[in-house]
Specification:
Blueprint: E1 5-8, E2 14-17, E3 41-44, H1 57-65, E4 70-77, E5 83-85, E6 108-112, E7 115-119, H2 127-130, H3 155-163, E8 170-175, H4 178-184, H5 193-203, H6 213-217, E9 222-224, H7 227-234, E10 241-245, H8 259-262, H9 265-271, E11 277-280, H10 282-285, H11 300-306, E12 310-311, H12 331-342, E13 346-349, H13 352-361
Parallel strand pairs: 3-4, 3-13, 4-8, 9-10, 10-11, 11-12
Antiparallel strand pairs: 1-2, 4-5, 6-7
The structure holds 2-acetamido-2-deoxy-beta-D-glucopyranose (NAG) (2 copies).
One 2-acetamido-2-deoxy-beta-D-glucopyranose binds next to strand 7.
């Protein structure tokens, strides 16, 4: 059972402080509080990255302290074949690479998913080189006081954070830009990025089917925008997979297919053999109007649910910049709409503390 502690702050104001996490230091042999499975999953997108620089150990530990069910990461590869957690293909926007004169010559242009991109590509750096960089906050309107405190972490370090938490915390790693990574990085043993990704999970004991005892002990969703990578991984590991769906104008990196093609009934019927659900950009499920209000929802959620597929939309963000006007600048109103009206099964959020509070406030009963 999850425990919510209520602390009375001085001055008599009761402050909710969800002490559900235990950022680390779980004791072997101790029975861990299980993953909740009674309500939509709270998936901490790149950690608690609304508060701390994304995909850092600090952001993941914060997300666990805040009550996230899953921590999410983008997994990519270094020049020397190590798997690391990093969202962008280039280091420019979220690290201090520009302040390192020794790397100035690395900037170049490469094609990524049908477009030319210029920057410092993560796949041009060894792990040792990446470890000399420091991570920073992506957005100017978020807290930048923690810029420069954290380093890029490996996929193994990410897994360690989840498995050493004091309660059961799931992981939700993405095979990021697999076509690009397989083109840029070569492994001496001839294996592909997808092989290395799955091997890293299996080495740590992951692998059970959705809701099996093995899965409940070590919950995992494997995500990708590349259907071919998910289908390839399905041969290697039983763990549940989620097919990510990009914005309507974006063609898939692996098969060069359109949004309409990959969300057709035929394609969902095909993918449900390999995945337990889909992860759409939320503005494709409930498209915004030109004046930033919500238009009518599409039938994607209904068609996915009719096939027994879960829907985990991305990304929920507290700030006004991201909230459609129907929500009156209230992120809790947005959660209420998506959980109760749209009825999604999981939510990727930059603010797991807010989603956790919403779910605690509206809980009709505790799972036990
Ligand atoms: C990227 O740039 C190269 C070199 O200028 C060019 O040949 C190629 O067509 C460009 N690709 C895209 C997708 O624009
Ligand atoms: C991807 O598909 C579009 C639409 O059919 C086509 O115009 C484009 O040439 C394709 N790109 C490649 C690289 O095949």
């Amino acid at each position: 059972m999850l425990v919510l502690a209520w602390c009375a702050a001085s001055g008599g104001v009761a402050v909710a402080r969800p002490l559900v996490g235990g950022g680390g230091g779980g004791e072997a042999g101790k029975t861990k509080a299980p993953l909740q499975t009674m309500r939509a999953y709270n998936i901490a997108h790149r950690g608690s990255n609304g508060e701390l620089p994304e995909e850092t150990a600090a952001a993941y530990l914060r997300a666990i302290d805040e009550g996230a069910d899953f921590i999410e990461a983008d997994v990519t590869a270094t020049k020397d074949g190590h798997l690391v957690c990093f969202h962008d293909t280039t280091l420019d926007d979220t690290t201090d690479v520009a302040d390192h004169p020794e790397f100035a010559g690395r900037r170049r242009t490469l094609e990524v998913q049908w477009a030319n991109l210029t920057g410092f590509f993560i796949t041009d750096f060894t792990l040792a080189e990446l470890k000399t960089l420091r991570v920073k906050q992506r957005y100017a309107f978020r807290d930048r006081s923690h810029n420069g405190e954290s380093r890029i972490i490996t996929f193994d370090e990410f897994i360690d954070i989840a498995v050493s938490a004091e309660r059961v915390v799931g992981i939700d790693p993405e095979m990021k830009n697999p076509v690009f990574v397989n083109k840029q990085v070569r492994w001496a043993d001839g294996k592909k990025f997808e092989d290395k990704f799955v091997a890293a999970l299996k080495r740590r004991g992951y692998g059970g089917r959705y809701m099996s005892p093995a899965w409940r002990a070590m919950p995992l969703f494997i995500q990708s925008f590349a259907a071919t990578s998910l289908i390839y991984a399905a041969d290697l590991i039983d763990s549940p997979k989620v097919f990510l769906i990009d914005d309507v104008g974006v063609r898939t990196e692996d098969t060069n297919q359109s949004y309409d093609e990959i969300t057709s009934d035929e394609y969902l019927d095909y993918m449900r053999e390999y995945v337990v659900g889909v992860g759409p950009w939320k503005d494709t499920v409930v498209p915004p109007t030109r004046d930033n209000k919500l238009a009518a929802p599409t039938d994607l959620v209904a068609r996915a649910h009719a096939r027994g597929m879960q829907v985990h939309p991305y990304t929920y963000r507290n700030e006004n910049q991201f909230l459609h006007f129907n929500f009156r600048q209230d992120p809790y109103a947005e959660y209420d709409y998506w959980i109760n009206d749209v009825a999604v099964d999981g939510l990727y959020t930059d603010f797991p503390a807010s989603l956790r509070r919403y779910q605690e406030w509206t809980a009709t009963g505790r799972e036990g």
